[in-house]
Amino acid sequence: MDDPATEEAMGDASRAAQLAALGDEVRDLTQSPLYAFRQAHKYQPVIGEGPADASIMLIGEAPGEYEAKSGRPFVGASGRVLDELLASIGQQRSQVYITNVVKDRPPENRDPSPEEIALYAPFLVRQIEIIRPKVIATLGRFAMEFVLNLLQITPENAMISKLHGQVLHGKAAYGAVAVVPLYHPAVALYSTPRKATLLEDIQALKPFVDQ
Ligand code: URA
User: Fold this and answer.
1) Hey, which of 43, 61, 138, 145 would you mutate to test ligand 1's pocket, going by the most ligand atoms within 8 Å of its Cβ?
2) How many whole angstroms separate alpha carbon 117 and alpha carbon 62?
């Protein structure tokens, strides 16, 4: 295959196929402690959505009720904030890949347990390896801690209050990847100053926007 355009198209098709296969595995994850809750409420797992070759990947914590009902990430109130944040850097959600650390809704939106994280984390790791983003924006403390640990980023002070809006440098299996910790968009729903901070911090993603 010598035509680079054909090669690229084949690569994209394979990435999309790998993501689809991963989605099937999550759908069949009967051993998850969240599986019975999913079935009882006719919820769906939220795998993630966006281009399989997105330059920008956004990672939240876990789906809430609206997400579990629709099977799509960030479609509730915090999703509307996220859309506004993306618009401020000239991006629509269809241009970025959005997912969560945990793919099923925890009851009462409680924090996912260490056991749940351990079960779902390998899927997120694979998504990162398939998509190969240039930058990962973590949404909230939870996703930040997971991604910093995964990509061997060890700042002196790993608090989100210190790291939000900074461009950090991580090592993925496919090479260098930037990480920008952001506050969770839900904070903008009850704090106007935090919304201003989010709007300022997301500007750090601008250099990674495809021209
Ligand atoms: N909060 C998250 O962390 N993820 C979602 O998908 C929705 C709300």
Assistant:
1) 61
2) 10
